[in-house]
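Write out this protein's structure.
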Amino acid sequence: MEWMALALFALALIWAIWTYNRLVKKRNRVKTAWSDIDVQLTRRHDLVPNLVSIVQRYTEHERGTLESVTQLRTRAISIESPARLGAIENELEGLLSRLLMLREDYPDLKASDNFRQLADQLVEVENHLQYARRFYNGAVRDLNTLIGQFPDLLIAKLFQFQQAEFYAAESEHRTAPQVEIAR
């Protein structure tokens, strides 16, 4: 009888260790996925000043849009919450889309190799961001599911694992802006 209790204790201990390790793996996947988003956002933020500078040379009366883009970039750099950052990044995405659309009104801007290169890089970053956001939200879903399901939630609560925030767009920003790069 004593050996049976010992065997049950050993099984419970093995399950607890296995569950703890799964939780750590999922938490680390969320952190890695967030880091991937951060890398892409940093790339986008690095492109913004160059894009603003080039557009500014051609479109002096578009100053309001340019200032808004610069202000949003500055705000976005300082925010770490995925939910709050998602809202600001969606605004920035919309304004950048407007900047890229200015090429239709300014033939010289449309012909600029620097503008075209920056626009291509920005589209590439947006594509990477879309993938990184989906991967991050998948990692968050997996972690939150593991934390919330019984009996794994016992280990999660014991070791104070916290649910992660989804990277979410505000309702008015759920559709992506259309960006076209003419060649």
